[in-house]
Design goal:
- By secondary structure, the protein is α+β, with helices and mostly antiparallel strands.
- The chain folds into 2 domains: 100 residues, Sandwich (Immunoglobulin-like); 62 residues.
- It has 4 helices and 9 strands; from the N terminus they run βββββαββββααα.
- The strands form 2 sheets. Strands 3-9-8-5-6 form a 5-stranded mixed β-sheet.
- A hairpin with a 4-residue loop joins β8 and β9.
- α3 packs antiparallel against α4.
- The relative contact order is 0.12.
Length: 195
Amino acid sequence: MPESLVVELNRDGIHDIAVTNAFATDEAFTVDLQNHGEAVHVHLHFDDDLSRVARLDTNNHYVEGGTTRSVDVPVRRVEEPTTGKMKIVTGYGSEAEYVSVTVEPPPPEPPEPASRDESPSEADSTDDPTVTVESLAARADEALPEAATLPIVAFAAFAVLVALAIAAFVDSAAVMLGVGVVIGGVAAAFWFLFE
């Protein structure tokens, strides 16, 4: 997107203003006041819509004859395009032009490529054709609960089965609530047990 909005002054006569009708940007820009004639005072003004997303530090600018004065316009990041009017006045109000300025959201940043770890992982040995019985046994040992917890697991499974059997034969809200409490308690116990 363009970074500067060119305003030509005194090109076709005194206090003449030549500027494009519309300007769009997604970042800070400059207004380049190019004076083709005698020295001139220029007044810049943003309407309410544009002043919500862009800012002028100074509205009045003196431009010497045959020179260009650049006016920096910082803009705020927007999520949706915002359009407003910039008024350009010379000759103490005798000449005025308007530019429709649109501040657009910045383009989306390209996603960063995922970094791939080339070093072999000890945990990822499923691609390794030399998996041994010992390594499989070690994995199974890690996945299964310790022998001391097996009676607790068996009791919890029995409690859940009894609760479900009672719920199947007795149609009561209180019984269903009790089944929910039992299953919730068993789930919480497992969570604390295997954490």
